[in-house]
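Teaching note: in complex prediction, the entire set of molecules is handled at once rather than each chain in isolation. The prompt given to students was simply: 'Predict the structure of this complex.' The entities are:
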Amino acid sequence: MNPARLRLGFILSGAFMLLALVLPLSAPAAASLAARPILFALTLAAAVLFAAAAWTGGSQAIAPGFAGVLAGAATTLALLRDPAIAGSAAAGFWIMMLAVWLGAALCVIELASMRPRHAPARRTLNLAIPLLFGAAVFYLWEVLVRGFGVSPVIMPPPSAAAARFFASLPVLGQDFVQTFVRGVLIGYVIGCGAGLLVAIVAQRFSFLGRGLLPLGNFFSALPLVGVAPIMVMWFGFDWPSKAAVVALVTFFPMLVNALAGLSASGHIERDLMRSYGADHRQTLTKLYLPAALPFIFNALKINATLALIGAIVAEFFGTPTQGIGFRISTEAGRMAIDMVWAEIALAAIAGMAFYGLVALAERATTFWHPSYRT
Amino acid sequence: MTSSALTLPISRSLRQHPLLARAAPVVTVVLALIAIWYVAAVLMNLALVRDGFEREETPYTVSDLIAGTMSAERPLLPAPHQVISAFADSVFGYAPNAPRSLVYHSGVTLSATLLGFLLGAMFGVALALMIVHSRVLEKSLLPWIICSQMVPILALAPIFIVVLGAIGLQGLLPKSIISAYLCFFPITIGMVKGFTAPDPMQLDLMRTWSATPRQVLSKLRWPSAVPYLFAGLKVAVTISLIGAIVAELPTGAEAGLGARLLAGSYYGQTIQIWSALLASAILASGLIGLVGLAERGIARQMGTRS
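The expected output is the structure of the full assembly:
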């Protein structure tokens, strides 16, 4: 970014901070910043820090700029605790939020333009930038929702969802076990295992393989979650029906990918196995399956997200009184949107952890693949 | 190898016909699946039908039982011909705008799907353009976009409906927004890949011609991204259909394939569920086929050799 523009940006955010001292904080009369010594000091500190960032410029501006952002964010969040400000914030408050947002954006932009030479530094940077970005988004969400006093029925602030999350851990734990451990994991293992087995059989008998591959492609493009009501009818309301939906949804991607992977080994390797006099079982375990691993992991990763979706959708069609999908639809019906967000956070954490575990297993077993050999 | 050597030489020319060689395995597997379906239908409905006969205390034979399993009113698993006749009945038997017509419900879902697909495709391409042109966005936004896909986004559907309903949006748009939200991702990822597909040599050539970024985009990046665009669109169109169907579940919508599925599951109308599923399968393959057609047409217009 243009250094002059960076300096101008930081000067602007410092000026906004100072303006916040003068402008009214909220529509009804609320004590101004001058009447709150700690917040007054914090605001001044933020303004000074932004000025320092503007003075140093370049990548050295990140540290004071970031400190200024923290001070400003702390001030706005503390101000929101005053009921006279929350819901009826006015120009002084919003200009402070604007200063924080501008400072944070400048820091992220400056961070993104850094090109560290060492790999560990680059990796931390690649992690830090999205984290900062996410933190800024959550901050804006929180401040906007509370500053404008948006009804919690429409959009609760993230802090309320987090508070609800930690307050209802036992319920969330039950839902997690019901949906994830019973429905998703069991169905995932059955579906992926069956897909892999059928692929191995189909690879042995090429007539079957040529028949199954187009059908598998066709079926994996269908909206298979639609079978959920049928599965609920067959297997009852409890977890077996969810596991059945998950198994069906994960079966076809695994079949298609594993079939592609099993035929991925080259002619030379196959000839080598023949010249060793290897029988089919040996060729399968020593050549075909290892060569298919990248494809199999690809399917496992696709299925990790599909499985969770399948289980949650199946719960819309009937469950015992627990489970993530059940809780989401009932709490949404009762307008307890913070609980819905807590459940979504749970599903997100579970989904990401699941995906992360599969990715870790992939790293551990396919370390030889060119995409990891950098 | 041995079996082909043993067959008669006359049949060999027929066997090696390329169309037959491709179609024969598929047809065999499909026939086998249908046969399995019939057997499963008999086995699963047997107890139901036997109970029916015994309740009425009428004498019955084995063939009566099997005939009963083929034409039960509310079977556990309807036989294929029952599904097809119910499907044909609800497609052709009613006026296209009657609430019992599958054409009507498919139309409702299809309109939500198409609107969502359009929104999602535009949003996905715009996002990819921004990401390709801004290093900051690539570093800060792309990881979140990827993370968002590990989150079961469909779980968000009910809140979306509630939130949008509170703002005053109802009907088609909330469903479309859910399908757009689901389907933008494959397009964004594909287009980011496609826009960065030109190799450095080609980009350098554009530089030596002192092309503006806009010219680089229109002359080099867009053409090289087209195959990626269609690969993404094909995935996105099915996801968009899934999104539209699922979005109809928690809203308690009265129309649409999802509403049909939900009503069928409430009233135990299995045949209705299966024919709605058949309709959604036909919709999905039709949509993919259309995208494929568009792809071929545009490839021909761009002079790509296939």
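Point out the following to students. Residues 13 and 102 of chain A are 6 Å apart (CA to CA). Residues 166-372 of chain A form a domain with the MetI-like fold fold (CATH 1.10.3720.10).
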